Amino acid sequence: MAGILQLGFLADFLSHTVLIGFLTGVGIQISISELSEVLGIPHGSYGTLMQITYLFKYLYLTNIPTLLVSLSVIGIITLSGRIHSKVPGALLAMIGAIAVNWALDLSSYGITILGTVPGGLPHLSFPQVPLSDIPKILNTSVTCFVVILAQSAATSRAYAMKFSDTYNENLDLIGLSFANVAAGISGTFVVNGSPTKTEMVKSVGGYTQLTQLTAVFTVLIVLVFLTKPLAYLPTCVLSSVVLLIGLHLVDIKGMTALHRQRPVEFVVALITAMTVIFIGVKQGIEIAIVLSIIAHLRHSYRPLNLLLVPNAGGGLRTISLVEQQQAVEGLLIYRFGSNLYFANEKSFTEEIIALAKNTHSLKWFCISASNIEDVDFTSAEALKKVYTQLKKLDITLVLSDVVMPVMNELDRDGIIKIIGKDHIFKSVQDVIVAYKSLADS
Question: Do residue 255 and residue 319 come from a single domain?
């Protein structure tokens, strides 16, 4: 339903800044969650803060043989990656660990082993759910949906940005729907777009759907023929692989660049990362969307407004408002830098009136609307107020570069009738020509 209703647009509210923070937060959260298994410490409480506290409290319980196996796996994966990016270091480490455990019985050293893994293909059946459980299941399903939508959208957008690629989140959602139907009838886990699995695929050079098809056939072979060897796999090996994947997600380069170039956006990324780490992925995505919207509103609330003046070589150039330079003696051309709406109409009005009062011998005040694509009801009333205030100062208000949708809005609001069609021009150049012609006459 989300795919059909085109809810994938929610991904558009995730800026590159918050995606850097999101993936960094996910990477740190996952890495911390795997540390107890890597160290051989019994599992503690849930929640990142509780896990950190637990680790420090029981660090003395570290199982040295488990730690040595974990370090060996990390070393093999790291070394193989340096030799060649397509060397399957994680696979080699897992096969090696299985062989060593089969030969030496690592469980006798206190190393936890995966144990029996059920083999064969899954039994397909439609889930039998009592009617009394439906409300509880629906509640859980809505939570899963929010996480799937948010995390899949964030992952798709983040990796599309990394590789300058395109993506279709609505198509992703429909694909995820079929995947979850398959999961429902085969008794497996809920499926979503996972940052860690995506990073795992990327780290071994997988960039097309051939990677997914290869994974499908590999899983089928393992389920049918190779579940017995998996029983010898130390669990710390799996945790070490996931730990490295989590660390790869931490975008130190991106965070450093933000801190150096955009300190405010660095704070946004940091808040997103901290939310993911200490509260949760779902809440991190929600915070990320809210922060992205706030960042957008911050730019449109205080847009960069400029004056236009003729260039020495022809054409026009922009200058700061503080220069108060007229395009032609008696004509001031003011370009508003954003859509006009209720949040910025006050500053829009005050700025124009201040310019009009402080500019000597002003006859015409032109508003270049080249950046205005929408005018809401509040800002339409503000335009009427501007017209009235300028008229009291014996200054004529003119408009230029008004796109047709905005023209229709102004017409419905009666502004065109107030200003007069003869005071609305196609371009700033037309305004200058009309003003000079009027001044000469």
Answer: no
Phi-psi region of 332 (alpha: psi -120 to 50; beta: other; left: phi over 0): beta
Tens-place pLDDT, residues 366-417: 999 999 999 999 889 999 999 999 999 999 999 999 999 999 999 999 999 9
What is the rounded CA–CA span in Å between residue 236 and residue 112? 7
What's the burial of 120, exposed, middle or buried (CB within 10 Å: 0-12/13-18/19+)? exposed
The DSSP 8-state label assigned to residue 361 in this structure reads T
Q: Any idea what DSSP says for residue 9? A: G
Q: Residue 352 belongs to a domain with what CATH number?
A: 3.30.750.24
H-only helix segments in 359-412: 377-392, 404-412
Rg (CA), the chain: 31
3-class state of residue 308 by DSSP: strand
d(CA 84, CA 86): 5
Do residues 260 and 311 share a domain?
no
3-state secondary structure of 329: coil
Same domain, yes or no, for 293 and 328? no
The Cα 212–Cα 195 span in angstroms is 15
Residue 318 in 3-state DSSP?
strand
Q: Evaluate whether 36 touches 77 at the Cβ level (below 8 Å).
A: no
Tokens 């009291």 sit on residue: 392
Taking a C-beta distance cutoff of 8 angstroms, is the pair 432, 332 a contact? no
Question: Do 373 and 253 have their domain in common?
Answer: no
- Asked if residue 270 and residue 318 are part of one domain, the reply reads no
| 135 and 85 co-located in one domain | yes
Is the whole-model pTM more than 0.85? no
Residue 169 lies in a domain: yes
Whether residue 124 is found in the same domain as residue 200: yes
Report yes or no on 1 lying in a domain: no
The structural domain count of the chain equals: 2
Q: Are residues 346 and 392 in the same domain?
A: yes
Domain span at residue 191 reads: 7-298
Distance set, CA 60 to CA 35, 50, 208, 342 (Å): 14, 17, 45, 60
| 137-180 pLDDT per residue, tens | 888 888 788 778 777 887 888 888 778 788 888 888 899 999 99
